[in-house]
# Entry
Amino acid sequence: MKNKILIFIVLLFIQVFVLNKIIFFSFLVLSPLIFILLLYSYKKDSIENLLVAFFIGLFVDMFNDSLGVYSMTSIIIVYFRNLWALKIIGEEKIDELNDISVHELGNIQYFIFSFPIMLVYFSLLVILESSSIFILDNVLFILFSSVLNYLFMLLFQYLFLESKLRDEWR
Amino acid sequence: MRSLLKFISRYNYSITFFFLLIFSFFLVLNESFILRSFYFNSSNYISGNFYRVQNGILSYFSLEKKNTILINENLELINRIKKLESDYRSVIIDTSTVGFLSAQVINNSLNKSKNYITIDKGFKDGVRENLGVISSNGVIGKVKYVSDNFSTIISLLNTSFYLSTLVDETKTLSSINWDGKNPREVKLLYVPKHVPLEIGYSVITSSFDSIFPKGIEVGKISSINEDTNSNFYDVDILLSEDFYSIYNVYLVKSFPFEEKIKLESID
# Structure
């Protein structure tokens, strides 16, 4: 748990001090904040989840001079994530999981769970930042950034998050 | 009362969500929110110091580029002095009424529709809200938030920032605003179609906004589109400053303007 918190703090600092300022090829943004929001422990109807998301978003906003944008996006994503997790994974199975990660769900179910959330996350950022998603540039930004972040999140999980199933197998 | 408490305890999760949602929505919409100007911006104590440390490390890697910029600045200043001496012309900006304060850029955002710049000078150094900010090449923005040691500048590359300008050759009063697309270009607004405009004309500050003295360069006209339904041109301005490489800026204290603002604020 301590390791996970440390990794989240490092991710947050990378988001704030490095990746906030970089757009790759005019269409791609790497946003570790969505990794934190997706991988943060699931608890049904947890006010703690909402408050943590709000304050993490507020922290990013403070450094980004975008007050409200990331805090609003974060709480919507966490609320949506909790509903979506129940729908995709089911209430019985979700209680048995330690984390909602690719190790626990498998590749296909994890894609179905996380990719729509990525799309919602980048759509919200575009709506709040530029007011319209119905511009080709913005649509491409949402699609490409979602794909890039999904791939990086898989890589991140394989590199840094332990697989309980693998441990059990040993 | 009991049923109300029961309702709250039953739906506390959704109630918390909607409360936080409404609160953050309020933060997004209300740019003049008091907490925003005091704490939640990049000029506050925590983020300002972080950016200063970050800039202290990163600035070593751009020393060569900074040197080149300073050499070019020096050359331009020398040329300007020589020209003024030979022509016996009066200086463009009357320095008896304008004071400058130099500052270093410690954070600069470029990839959003509302971009801000953070500098390492604050209230203790004499910075106040609404001071104009320029570089050796032209206008940068104006001071939005000030803490003791840092300030946040609303950049020209911010869709909510409008600047009063003049087309130098025709002396036409106009405004500029960024449309959020190309960070090298802004839009020139409110120039009527009867005014003869040409590509390459200079756009300078007008001084009517009480922020900048008259005559500071903003950019040059790069394209003119007359085929619009309105009575005004659709004009693009190529900015004289490259916002991707701003390291040092100057804050403009225009003394007569403080008196002007006071006078204008009297009902």
Remarks:
- Chain A has one domain: 2-18+35-169.
- DSSP finds nine helices and no strands in chain A.
- Residues 2-18+35-169 of chain A form one domain.
- Chain A touches chain B through 32 residues (CB under 8 Å).
